[in-house]
Amino acid sequence: MKVFDLDTARELLTLIKPLVETINIKKEELYSILTKMEEEEDKLERLYMESQTKEIDAEIRRCFQKIEALGGVIKGTDPILVDFLSFYQNRYIWLCWKEDEDTILYWHELDEGFAGRKPIELLTKFTL
């Protein structure tokens, strides 16, 4: 697993944000097709819609895999949460990003989740 300093993790967001945008667009397409499928009575049309949903689902998975290949760890999908492993004061921590945030604003201990997020300013007094 890759270990990031704060600046490198923030730079990586320039590659991750477009992937997250694509995921959200594809999720909307998927929900739309699934809604139409419930109302569709024609079996052939339903089969076509099912194949579309499988293709869209595969595209979403590929985007998540790209994020992970870059070193991000997916911690949530709705909203999308991505953590980056970092080393701070002789211990590993997570740098934490949520899809609606401009940059990495929070961090938490390895054994804490989203609820344990703390402002990044608590770390920036020191070198990450």
UniProtKB/TrEMBL annotation:
Domain of life assignment: Bacteria
InterPro entries associated with the record: DUF2203
Stretches assigned to coiled coil: 27-57
This protein's record includes keyword Coiled coil: yes
Protein name, UniProt field: DUF2203 domain-containing protein
Assigned keywords, A-Z: Coiled coil
